[in-house]
Amino acid sequence: MTAPDLVLPPCDFTVFGGTGDLALRKLLPGLYEQERRGQLPAGTRIIGVSRSPLDDAGYRDLVTRALFDHVAEDHLEAGALHRLTARLHHLSLDIGSADDWHRLHGLLKDRPDRPAGEEATRIHYLAVASELFGPICDRLDALGLVTPECRVVLEKPIGADLASSHQVNDAVGRVFAERQIFRIDHYLGKESVQNLLVTRFANVFLEPIWNSRWVDHVQITVSETLGVAGRGEYYDKAGALRDMVQNHLLQMLCLIAMEPPTYVGGDPVRDEKLKVLQALKPLTGADVDRFTVRGQYTSYGEKVGHPSTTETFVALRAEVQNWRWAGVPFYLRTGKRLARKESTIEVVFKEPPHAMFPHSEGVTTPNRLTVRMQPDEGMQLHMTAKHPGPGGIRLHPASLDLSYADAFDERSPEPYERLLMDVMRGIPTLFMRRDEVEAAWTWTQPVLEQWERAAVEPVRYHPGSEGPAAAARLLARDGRRWQEAGR
């Protein structure tokens, strides 16, 4: 999915929102790791754009402190820190100020290291609210800062609903061609998520059983122990469905359910993901009430400073209505202030069709494939084995465990490291296309509307718990239960 032998030209990497939490916690540490590994092209500049009244020196100090906070201590190297900070610039910019935009124009056009008429590749990373995407793109275009080799990176969520998603995509699309737009979902940059593609399509043993004949159901869980932290203002407008389900969880569902593409790259992968989103059975009206759970942890209102009906937990039951997956439920859940920080995919297979060991001790359990994204990235294949010993057969659950940390003597890159490099290389495979984003909103929108129409308060759950009891009942009605990774 990457091209390590591709020689990259210098680029100007402009981060709008360059002093924000995302930039300091994820983007700059990701760029530092690229610098440490010698992957940033010579002549590349990183320009933080924000309303903060910082000069270059002040911005370099701010970023250095952030790197010490968010980069592993054994990865902090004086040489790499010096090289990265030498690339850093900061521009204070008010979006409504023509003078500020002309200063950005001057900074980006002032490249004495480039031959006359030859410009560095420009990457504009919009780490700001999506309602600012259009105005920023219009300004860049008006100043002649958009060329065929330019790229723009959009952070999720793209809009707050289907209508606003259309508006944002239209605004950006008036300036940038679709091939230039990289809509980022950092979950697609996780090693374990990408390895799911490799496991499925570079091996033959799973494909014959990767269908409704053998798979009983699929579970996708993303749970967090933290609350809203410093994101209260944003989160209270978004909620868990917009913040996590519409993008991260549906993208993982697509990778599980998609048909084999002609090859793993660019549009072939995105074409197949789109087909999955279009095949999702709509959830409307009474189905929303029956197949979704909306929860909120009990101290949430205190954290955001006012009573709120915003959900911090969602569980739901989805179905992919196609030949491969007809009748197989996909259970999705995500929440804050839960018992564990955990991101997993569980593919649960059906019971053996015939009991072959009637006089054995113990019981058979369904085979499961567990994909762990955090903690401890890896995979486990759970099966039933014979417990060693003489005499009768004693059945015992066992697992084959692939831990990436143990199997590969190499650190797994953080998602943003990989995705930022893919932007520089112009590789779109792990980014969402417009039709994908809007298909996900099309499926999500009726759930939002039904919740609003029904005006039902989210069910409360205690911080540090497994979430609302209603989430367990959602599966119990089908005779199933949530699996916990490694158990």
Automatic annotation (TrEMBL):
Active-site residues, Swiss-Prot/TrEMBL: H248 (proton acceptor)
Reactions that this protein is recorded to catalyse: D-glucose 6-phosphate + NADP(+) = 6-phospho-D-glucono-1,5-lactone + NADPH + H(+)
Domain of life from the UniProt record: Bacteria
Residues annotated as binding NADP(+): R51, D94, I95, K156
Domain Glucose-6-phosphate dehydrogenase C-terminal, residue spans: 197-483
Pfam families, A to Z: G6PD_C, G6PD_N
Binding-site residues, substrate: H186, K190, E224, D243, K336, K341
The protein, known as: Glucose-6-phosphate 1-dehydrogenase
Biological source species: Nocardioides daeguensis
Keyword hit for NADP: yes
Pathway: Carbohydrate degradation; pentose phosphate pathway; D-ribulose 5-phosphate from D-glucose 6-phosphate (oxidative stage): step 1/3
Domain Glucose-6-phosphate dehydrogenase NAD-binding span(s) in chain numbering: 15-195
Alphabetically ordered keywords of this record: Carbohydrate metabolism, Glucose metabolism, NADP, Oxidoreductase
Sections of the chain in a coiled coil: none
The family this protein is said to belong to: Belongs to the glucose-6-phosphate dehydrogenase family.
